Amino acid sequence: MTAAYLQVSTQNIHGRNPSTTLLRILFINTVCMKTVLRQIMPGWQHFKIAISMILLSLFTIACDKFEYSPYQTDNANRPDNLNNKNIEALLSAEAHADDTVRFIFTGDSQRFYDELKDLVTKANSLPKVDFLILAGDITDFGLLQEFIWINDELEGLNFPYMAVVGNHDLTSNGSVIYTSMFGQKNFSFVYKRHKFIFHDTNSREYNFNGSVPNIPWLGTQLNDSKADWYIGVSHVPPYDVDFDKNLENPYKDQWAADSAFILSMHGHLHTSGDSHMYDDHVRYINTAAVQQREFILMELVNGKINKRIIYY
Amino acid sequence: MKRFYFIVILLYMSHAMTAQNLRKNTSYGIQYAGSVGFISMGYYKHSAKGKISIGLVYGFTPKKFGGPLGSLSLKVRYDPFHLKVHRNISIQPIQIGFFLAQNFGKNIDFKWGSNYPKGYYWWGSSFRQHAFISTQVSFTLPKGYFSKASFYLEANTNDLYLYSYFSNRNTITLYDIFFFGIGSRFYLREKQAQKKAYHRYDL
């Protein structure tokens, strides 16, 4: 019976406009439905059928696929408070680990999803990694979808990850999205007596207003009884033009004044670098971007830093 | 480029707003989602056969749904196929088009601020170019203010999503970058205008 309807409707198509026959055959389902409807349904019943067909197709589309704006800050698929959740997961496993802090340091994942996927595969193949640090520029355009796509890839990791905020993440509504999806822009945690201080150094995004980086807050993070060593994690390094020039000296002096502060880690430059930039005891390490297909495997043992660049 | 688009919008509006054209080939639209706002309203003009339509759409997203955000867009749609399935019902299985959206919001800068050197960020801060594909069913209404009502399901993507798609062919799929919206358009009946013209000749 269906075959007969198919034939009838094909004839209809040919009769109407031979030049678009091929394209119209693509919609044979629609036309076939028409023939069937004509046989079994009179008048306004068509209305109900067509509406229910649209409704049926609507149910197959996930909620978060209805986008209100590319700039929207929330949807049904957005995770919340990722940094805190991941820190909790990391600390709950602390008791079973050895005393070496072993983590992957990478940054600037902005729009490099293919490369990030390979990074996750490579990272999962390394033994005994505790966590991953993403040094900012999670996204390229600060859009909600980008945050979600990056998190979708990083969820493939066998261990937790934490991300600091980058300058691209602060464009458009990115600041609001980062705060609700990852948490506070300045935060810290202590793992195996090493304190990691994540903070916002994207001074240019705040028009160099003198409050970013928040140096008084950074001061309060030092002298923690639970920690022996301190590590700073931020996106823009103090020696870059996007860092507030008026705050460069107070910033690096504060680190240099504390002998327990051993390491300052950054992204933003898309090249790897490693130096005692200000001729003091603090080591400044810069990671390449995800795009360059390399990341740093860091090992901290009692304040001693071991570093290995891994290509993938 | 942006200036050019605005000139096009102004020219189009000045044409559409003349009294004679105000009711002719006109439809009003209302839409849910579809990347122009939680809810949006449009004013469209059509070609004589109704295959090409061009319109202005204003959309709004309240705080509860990830806003507050506003957008004003110029929307152009081409309906190549009209399949009549019944005396009163026709289906437009595939429609294609684009819309150019100017977005407004507290954190959406109209253009990049003076704190950035020129070209620091290469993409537009608030102006998005979207492409869409949609499918529609239309009902002819026997009487009343509107002559036709149509309901459509639309999938759109924008310049930044497309750019992400083309540079990540292993991870980002077409389904990832397309987002949906549903809406309807109501076509104004032209009968009243014709009646007036008839009376004029009669006198």
Helix content of chain B: 10-25%
List how many beta strands of chain B DSSP finds: 9
Alpha-beta content class of chain A: alpha/beta
Arithmetic mean of pLDDT of chain B: 87
The global form of chain B is globular
* β-strand amount of chain B: over 45%
Q: What oligomerization state is this entry in?
A: heterodimer
Task: Summarize the main sheet of chain B.
Answer: 8 strands, antiparallel, barrel
Number of helices of chain A: 10
What is the molecular shape of chain A?
A: globular
Q: How many DSSP-defined strands of chain A?
A: 11
Q: Largest interface, by Cβ-Cβ below 8 angstroms: which chains and how many residues each?
A: A-B, 54 and 58 residues
Number of helices of chain B: 4
Structural class by sheet pairing and helices of chain B: alpha+beta
CATH architecture of the largest domain in chain A: 4-Layer Sandwich
Order the strands across the largest sheet of chain B as they lie in space. Answer: 1-2-3-4-6-7-8-9
End-to-end distance of chain A:
58 Å
CATH topology of chain B, which one? Porin
What would you say this structure looks like, in words?
The complex is a heterodimer of chains A (312) and B (203). Chain A has 312 residues and is α/β, with parallel strands linked by helices. Chain A has two domains: 2-61, no CATH class; 82-311, Purple Acid Phosphatase, chain A, domain 2. Helices cover 36% and strands 18% of the residues of chain A. In chain A, the strands form two sheets. A six-stranded mixed β-sheet of chain A has the order 4-5-6-7-9-8. Chain A starts with a helix and ends with a strand. Residues 1-19 of chain A have low confidence and may be disordered. The longest helix of chain B has 15 residues, at 2-16. Chain B contains four helices and nine strands; from the N terminus they run αββββββββααβα. The relative contact order of chain B is 0.16. The mean pLDDT of chain B is 87. In chain B, strand 2 and strand 3 form a beta hairpin. Helix content of chain B is 19%, strand content 45%. Chain B is globular. By secondary structure, chain B is an alpha+beta fold. Chains A and B meet through helix 3, helix 4, helix 6 and helix 7 of A and strand 6, strand 7, strand 8, helix 2 and strand 9 of B.
